[in-house]
Amino acid sequence: MILVLLVILLAALALVARADNCPPITPDPTLHPNFTIQAPAFAWNQDKVRGVTLGGWLVLEPWITPSLFASKPDWAVDEWTYGQYWSNHSCPAAEIAVHWKGFYTAADFQSIAGVGLNTVRIPIGFWSLVPLANGEPYLVGAFEYLKQAVTWAAASNLKVMVDLYGAPGSQNGLDSSGRRGTAEWYANWTNADRATAAVVAVATEFAKPQYGGAVATIGLLHSPQPNAAWQLEWLRGYYNQTYFAVRNVSSVTLLLGSAGPLGSWSGFMQPPQYQGVGISEPILPMFDATTLQYGATDNLRWTCGWNDTLTRSNHNLWTVAEMTAATTDCAAWLNGRGVGARYDNASAVRYPGSCADKSGNNPGAFGAEYTRQMGVGFETQTYVYEAAGSGWTFCCWNTEAAADWSFSLGLVYGWIPVPITAKHTKPCNFSSYIETGAAGRRAVPAGVVTALAAAAWLVSIL
Ligand SMILES: *[C@@H]1O[C@H](CO)[C@@H](O)[C@H](O)[C@H]1NC(C)=O
Ligand SMILES: *[C@@H]1O[C@H](CO)[C@@H](O)[C@H](O)[C@H]1NC(C)=O
Ligand SMILES: *[C@@H]1O[C@H](CO)[C@@H](O)[C@H](O)[C@H]1NC(C)=O
Ligand SMILES: *[C@@H]1O[C@H](CO)[C@@H](O)[C@H](O)[C@H]1NC(C)=O
Ligand SMILES: *[C@@H]1O[C@H](CO)[C@@H](O)[C@H](O)[C@H]1NC(C)=O
Ligand SMILES: *[C@@H]1O[C@H](CO)[C@@H](O)[C@H](O)[C@H]1NC(C)=O
Ligand SMILES: *[C@@H]1O[C@H](CO)[C@@H](O)[C@H](O)[C@H]1NC(C)=O
Ligand SMILES: *[C@@H]1O[C@H](CO)[C@@H](O)[C@H](O)[C@H]1NC(C)=O
């Protein structure tokens, strides 16, 4: 009798325990490497950044991991609404913790180093770094995974570029900022101060000797989109404020997120007053109405046109290009969950082209011409960005379904060469280049801008 009661009591306790006991959201401490620090110092302008972005990991992007969103209502479109969805469920962080544990592992860092890359770029959101406010529904916990990732990188001889992808209110209205919609970061300086505090939290942590100096750069803000002169001044003020706040705790190189024409940053944050400053420039033809239309040859002539622009910029601030091999926006949800591609007329902007053989999760189904174009494009881009700039970061190492954006699949299917520095053709052997880089990457013809539905403008920059 007593035994039966005891069994019932234990069973009841177990039930209570299960109900309250959500799985741990912290990383597995046994996966901490007993490492010898490998990562040596990075010599800017001697070593070139050859990096991959670990997108969609510590900041969710529906197009990189559609599986986390497809099972949820249509209104779950970014990390903000993902958190809102879970706010009414038990164990709200259980699913995202499984994702944090599994989407990238120590083995990936070893593979990345093994193919000759020297850097991983890791996006992070402010909500993982400073206390939540104003009812922000984000799920917190990614910073612990970032710390673990930096130890894996240090043990694998990789440098890390940590990049603030999400600032309070959103700096660009893109899902990659955590909150799709309008860019409200410019609404009040509290938003700037919280972004500064987030960057300082990263700088303070990775200045600790246990990380072996593996964090080579901290990106102050990814892909900001100021849309008025005062917002650009705001951004510059934020960069300046954050520079001095970080220099209190760390001498790490700080990367500015470019906005507007690259040449417009000429003379900004120069030595001797400022030390260790670079700039990150997205060179992504699929998000610009003009460059998206280029055929294979003009796309290469345009890539080569960046050689002069980057040479000038790299004399101003070390300049790293953000690149990929894809030349279209055909990947599903790339422009946001439920938003179509420009390339095949599914969005408000019209272009003649078919997406049928240009994305999806099976590179075997890609057209031979598109695969060839991605291959020549990769070799040409990496030539230009290394010859004229300080290197490149490629989005992404892995994607769930957008194979044309995957470095690891590019290696398997041959549009990325082995070794990654091989050149099968002489890059930039054209008699003339297209110099649109100097004019600004977001030069959209006026007629197109007015035709653009608000949702279609929410391009998902990586
Ligand atoms: C690190 O060392 C500890 C104790 O020696 C061991 O238990 C652990 O498995 C090691 N970790 C790894 C990743 O090898
Ligand atoms: C969560 O539940 C509350 C009360 O049941 C409801 O008012 C709210 O709309 C729900 N929120 C979401 C995001 O489902
Ligand atoms: C600043 O702007 C954010 C985003 O729009 C808003 O949530 C917050 O309440 C504002 N803070 C202040 C102090 O006005
Ligand atoms: C940059 O910040 C410093 C320190 O706060 C300040 O003294 C200086 O005026 C600022 N410079 C610009 C151009 O805003
Ligand atoms: C630097 O640190 C000092 C001492 O903690 C502090 O008083 C000062 O405000 C800090 N400066 C910046 C720009 O954060
Ligand atoms: C896209 O729209 C343009 C202009 O309306 C048209 O010329 C073109 O044929 C269309 N392309 C496709 C693939 O439907
Ligand atoms: C690219 O720029 C670099 C640095 O200015 C220069 O050495 C190289 O010749 C240029 N290459 C081409 C193809 O223009
Ligand atoms: C450029 O190089 C390719 C591959 O080596 C070659 O086929 C092509 O004829 C060259 N073009 C020019 C203009 O030299």
UniProtKB/TrEMBL annotation:
Q: Which SUPFAM superfamilies match?
A: (Trans)glycosidases
- Does the entry feature the keyword Hydrolase, yes or no? yes
- Entry's Gene Ontology molecular function annotations: beta-glucosidase activity
Q: Which GO terms describe its biological process?
A: glucan catabolic process
Q: Name one Pfam family in it.
A: Cellulase
UniProt keyword terms in alphabetical order = Glycosidase, Hydrolase, Signal
Q: Which residues form the signal peptide?
A: 1-19
Domain Glycoside hydrolase family, chain residue ranges per copy: 95-208
Q: Which InterPro entries match?
A: GH (IPR017853), Glyco_hydro_5 (IPR001547), Glycosyl_hydrolase_5 (IPR050386)
Question: Any one cellular component term from GO for this entry?
Answer: cell surface
Q: Which PANTHER family does the annotation name? A: GLUCAN ENDO-1,6-BETA-GLUCOSIDASE B, GLYCOSIDE HYDROLASE FAMILY 5 DOMAIN-CONTAINING PROTEIN
Give the UniProt family note.
Belongs to the glycosyl hydrolase 5 (cellulase A) family.
> What name goes with this protein?
Glucan 1,3-beta-glucosidase A
